Structures are given as C-alpha cells and as structure tokens.
TrEMBL record:
Keywords: Glycosyltransferase, Transferase. The lineage of its organism: Bacteria, Pseudomonadati, Pseudomonadota, Betaproteobacteria, Burkholderiales. This is Pyrimidine operon attenuation protein/uracil phosphoribosyltransferase. The keyword Zinc does not apply. Residues 28-132 form the Phosphoribosyltransferase domain.
Length: 167
C-alpha cells in the first residue's frame, strides 16, 4: 500500500507564487475557518498586502447544520473591511465536495456584495458534489472517500498534512 506524502510547506510556496501572479491589486483575502484562515493570515503577511485578512465561518450556512450544530464550529466570521464592490479571494486548505465553499459564499454575501469571488486552495482532492472549482490549487490529488486530509499548523507557523480515516 502506497502512503500519500504531501509537503504542505512546498505546496504553500506554490500557492503563494501562483496567487502573487494573479492577485488583483485591490483584492482582499478571506480564509475559511480554520485551515483557510491560517493560510490567508500567512499569505497576507508573506505577500506584503496592506491591512488585515478576513476570516469566514461556514457553520451557520452548512446543509448539515441540523446534525452538526454549533459544537463542530470554529471562530465566528470576522471581516475587518467592507466587501461591497471588492474582489474577494476566498482561501481554503482542502477542496472536496464543495459544500463548505457554498456555505462560506452564502455567509460572505450576508456581509455585502463583492465585485468577484475567486477561490484558491492548497489541495483539490476531487469528489465534488456541487459545481464549484478553484481558480488556483497548489495540488490536485485523488484520495479515497473514506479518508480525510487535514491541515495542521505548528507553533512556529509551519504547515503539515495528516491523512485520517473519516468518521
């Protein structure tokens, strides 16, 4: 059995370079809690973007909210800027079914109407259930449905991936 090894730091460097090439000058970064928020925070700093990044929670708009409730949540949405008429770059760690992205976009529109929303992800693992695609993905992999790819952040800010059996 082959064990998939992903170098999260190398993928982050690739995502940063790709984003630098396509980022509109007036865009704002909004990371989806939690892995996407970690990525957006570091991208904001490493790209030398002015201001602060935003964080969005998909919790209240999830289609499984009734079964998950708030216990599975995370930090609440925090957008330190107006999104009306802005180009928003939505950042997430792993794109799978598309349901989290759909919920995050619904939450985003609760705060205004952006000029555009562009999705960038560290890893696209396929398995889409909704017609959602990333404009930029540092890696595209195939992972069995019974496995979950999770981004972790060490105390020094470095990223690693873990592959876990899905609950």
């Amino acid at each position: 059995m082959t064990v998939l090894q992903l170098d999260a730091e190398a993928l982050y460097a690739e995502l940063r370079q790709g984003l630098r090439a396509v980022l509109p000058p007036d865009a704002v970064l909004v990371g989806i809690w939690s892995g996407g928020a970690w990525l957006a925070e570091r991208l904001q700093r490493d790209l030398g973007l002015p201001g602060a990044h935003g964080v969005i929670s998909s919790m209240l708009h999830r289609d499984d909210f009734g079964s998950r409730g708030l216990a599975a949540g995370g930090d609440p949405t925090h957008l330190p800027f107006s999104i009306d008429g802005r180009h928003v770059v939505l950042v997430d760690d792993v794109l799978y079914t598309g349901r989290t992205i759909r919920a995050a976009i619904n939450e985003l529109y609760d705060f205004g109407r952006p000029a555009s929303v562009t999705l960038v992800v560290l890893v696209d693992r396929g398995g889409r259930e909704l017609p959602i695609a990333a404009a930029l993905a540092a890696a595209r992999i195939a992972l069995p449905a019974g496995q979950r790819l999770s981004l972790a952040r060490a105390e020094d800010g470095r990223f690693t991936f873990a592959i876990e059996e899905a609950a």
